[in-house]
Amino acid sequence: MPISNGSQNDLPEPGSTAIVWGQHKGAVGETVTLLHKFGLRIVERSRLQQVFEEQKIRLTYSTDDDAQILKIGKILGADSIVFVETETSSSQRSGAFVNQYGGAAQSETITNVSVAIRGVNVESGEVMWTGTSHYPQAINNPEAGIIYLTGSAVMRGLCPAGGWKNEDEGCDWNKAFGTGVIGFKAESKSSPQGRQLVVVTVMPNSPAEQAGLTVGDVILSCNGKSGFQTMGQFFLACKAERGQTLILQTKRGDKLTTISATAVSRTDVQK
User: Fold this and answer.
1) Dihedral over alpha carbons 85, 144, 39, 55 (to 10 degrees)
2) What pTM was computed for the model?
3) pLDDT digits (tens, 9 = 90+) for 112-164
4) Cβ–Cβ under 8 Å, residues 218 and 198
5) Structural domains for the chain
6) Among 149, 157, 155, which residue's Cα sits nearest to residue 171?
7) How many other C-beta atoms can be found within 10 angstroms of the C-beta atom of residue 214?
8) DSSP code, position 203
9) Which residues pair with 184 in a beta bridge?
10) Is 234 exposed, middle or buried (0-12, 13-18, 19+ CB in 10 A)?
């Protein structure tokens, strides 16, 4: 069973655009598949190659390329770059066996395998989330192992603290993000004061609407926690359970407003 770890400063928002970059084709492919399931839009490799040629960029296929990939991300309007790194080291294991027919010596190649993945915000260059996974012992099928470890690293990296159960069961998303919502969506937008989390949708008949939250409001804090600029940061800082009251401080024009809303289950808001 692999050993995995993860951390999150921010999470990619569904519908955002990402570039997945790495040298192991299988690991990159597995990452793309999983990020699609999270609702991300992935830039095709052929499109990346086209921009490399247009910009006359020469790659070294090492970590020295990271800055170039970020540059390409800005050109393509991507929100994040997901870097996928694999590491292997092989050795020979020898042994012998004896049975009633005689005996013989045998050897096989075994490999230590690890995968490290990190999501980087294209605009700021800051690491949003990381996931790592490795086997505690060497294995005899490294290619299959890399694919499995990639899935483990991605899931571990995108699962907020407290939500991870174990390698078999994965992430408990209700525990990670809470069972309740108040029914709004917001986006990160630029302003003279920097990036701000601005409400773009308020669900009809939701607790948010009933409490007076409106489109255009800037979310400043939630239950005393502040500093988030994206919905990912908001969910990490302010998860809610059904029946829990959230206190939001918002800004509407030049006016500061405090809004109190009691969270309902996600299915209630989606009805």
Assistant:
1) 40
2) 0.80
3) 999 999 999 998 899 999 999 999 999 999 999 999 999 999 999 999 878 88
4) yes
5) 3-92+105-175 (3.40.50.10610), 178-270 (2.30.42.10)
6) 155
7) 14
8) -
9) 202
10) buried
